[in-house]
Amino acid sequence: MSKDALSHNGLILIIYNPEKKGAIELSSEIHSYLESNKINNAVCSSESIPENFLGKKHRLIITLGGDGTVLYCSRLFSPHDTPILAINFGEIGFITETEKNNWKTSLESFLNNTYELKKHILLKVSVFRDNKKKYEANCLNDSVITANGAAKIINLDVYVENLYLGRYKADGIIVSTPTGSTAYSAAAGGPLLYPEMDAFILTPICPYSLSNRPIVLPVDKSIKIIIEKNQRVDIVLTDDGQETFNLKENDSVIIEKSPYKAHIIRAEKEVFFSKAKAKLNWSGGPNNA
Question: Please, are residues 61 and 77 in contact by the beta-carbon 8 Å criterion?
């Protein structure tokens, strides 16, 4: 390890998901490794990150969990451009590129400044009610508008850059990033996009009309979704499957490109297509074996 790596100031924060088997043990192993090299670090659970670690730029965030842990940490630390080394303890792990048995190689590449970053765009989601902003969040995967509870049809008016796109009568609408294209959007019939592209995907959920198909949009266009009057159910906004906000009739949901990006340390080899094949049974074409 180089002298530059040892002398670099800043905290490396190790965040483990306590529900993932083996995550606590590996966090202790990484902590011991950094301590032995006199590198400033701290360990905490994703369920109880101390307040004094929030709202600050750190040298590195190491996550030990699944994609959900990365989504959570991206919302917390992307505003400070803090890189994330995501170690996979999940079932799929599209965002968590580093496997458990390869953590030291990835960490040493960071410490020796020989690493590469994948920069993922985020969504900025705002809710306006009576011309007042009531909610704002950044999310890495997707923002979803659905009925609150059992699947029921809701009515939404959708605009792109203030131009009327149409009325959507559906179970809901997903607006996702390319990173989120392999998540809920894919399950609803949306396309897969390469994670580092600059694009949005607007995917209706079980639309009542066959003409309502997924649309790929440029990120310099804002999307406005208005909750129509006389809905028969309560409607909820869910960001990254983790943050929720209850919507009311006439609310406007504005979705645009966030000024922040999630900086994820790239694995040694490209894993997107291999994971799409292994986890989603995507063939990429006929298999002429």
Answer: yes
Distance CA 15, CA 168 (A): 40
- Residues 56, 50: Cα–Cα separation, whole Å: 12
Non-local CB neighbours of 75 within 8 Å, separated by 6+ positions: 137, 138, 139, 140, 240, 243
Q: Which residues are catalytic?
A: 67
Whole-angstrom distance, CA of residue 264 vs CA of residue 272:
13
Q: Which two tokens stand for residue 282?
A: 């995507």
The structure's pTM equals 0.90
CB atoms within 10 A of CB 129: 15
Counting Cβ atoms within 10 Å, is residue 52 exposed (0-12), middle (13-18) or buried (19+)?
exposed
Residue 105 CB neighbour total at 10 angstroms: 12
HSE, side-chain direction, 13 A CA sphere, residue 3: 0
Terminal C-alpha separation, the chain: 45
- Cα–Cα distance measured from residue 138 to residue 126, given in angstroms and rounded to the nearest whole number: 9
| Whole-number Cα distances in Å, 99 to 66, 144, 153, 168, 199 | 11, 30, 41, 41, 28
Which residues are bridge partners to 252 per DSSP? 128, 226
Q: Answer whether 34's CB lies under 8 Å from 104's CB.
A: no
Per-residue pLDDT of the chain (289 residues; tens, 9 = 90+): 544 444 356 899 999 999 999 999 999 999 999 999 999 999 999 999 999 999 899 999 999 999 999 999 999 999 999 999 999 997 767 788 898 999 999 999 999 999 999 999 999 999 999 999 999 999 999 999 999 877 689 999 999 998 999 999 999 999 999 999 999 999 999 999 988 889 999 999 999 877 789 999 999 999 999 999 999 899 999 999 999 999 999 999 999 999 999 999 987 666 666 666 666 666 665 554 4
